[in-house]
Amino acid sequence: xxxxxxxxxxxxxxxxxxxxxxxxxxxxxxxxxxxxxxxxxxxxxxxxxxxxxxxxxxxxxxxxxxxxxxxxxxxxxxxxxxxxxxxxxxxxxxxxxxxxxxxxxxxxxxxxxxxxxxxx
Length: 120
Description:
Layout (H helix, E strand, L loop, with lengths): L1 E6 L2 E3 L5 E9 L3 E10 L6 E6 L5 E3 L7 E6 L4 E6 L8 E11 L3 E6 L3 E5 L2
Parallel strand pairs: 2-11
Antiparallel strand pairs: 1-3, 3-8, 4-5, 4-9, 5-6, 7-8, 9-10, 9-11
């Protein structure tokens, strides 16, 4: 199994910044993609950003000019730096990773979620 521990959420004023972190642990051969999704009340879960093992990134249009996703492979950790936060960024943010498990192929896992509230 793989465990994901997220941190960095909280209450932020509009225009502020935060950095989310997600550390993966468990038994796996390697981590393929890592990413962040979010879900606001009453809305479906949506991709925020993702990063492949080789470093290629993909962002939602709503955040791409003010967000940076990165990963520290030695720490099995993915980060999401978000700047100029807006009230519409308020949501529960979920980390997801896809790992290679020995002899079993690729599996995806989700974190428990961390709440981000953007409000004055």
